# Entry
Amino acid sequence: MLYGELQRVTLGESEFNGFRFTVKNPPKTAILRLPSSIEMIARIDGQKSIRSSIGRRKSSTETIPNPKADIAFFEALRIAGDDFDEFEARNAIGKLTDVDVLDCQREGDQYRITLKTPFCDVAHWVKIPTDKDIYFYRRSVVAPTELPHGKEELRYRASAGIELYDSVFAKAEGYADQAAIPAHHKFAVAGELSQQCSYDSEFDPNS
# Structure
């Protein structure tokens, strides 16, 4: 299955283009659609994490749940079926939108970044960004707010990752619609690309 390839599913006597999610206890079923990029941008921008210093220049980061946002997002995606509570909604949303970086390989003047999605693995080929691109991405992708006791509130800006991705995009594979790559996939690719640019430094003080 390609990412975004619609399934024809039934609920009762009706058929829908969507994806079925079930809860075993209590028994529930809902049909969800894929979120739009606009919806995913709003969700990324609305999430926040708390970063705490744990000493020796180390820190831990914890994502802060937002039950109201989870319920609202679930309701926006639901096209049929039962109501889910905040825990069921968060679980369903995670299964539908989860994305992880599987691999990143340098191929000449490009990187091939592979993502794992609930549907299939997808691949992105992106050009090596300029130092300017990386600088502005890193400066704007996270908005930190200092809190007491050595903590920071972090809010992410999806637009920074999307702008970086769009500026270096070469091609992608694994999508039902190649012209509609999801915003959260672009955001994940941009984050991995930024890390790889740090690892690929050619500076050698002993040369």
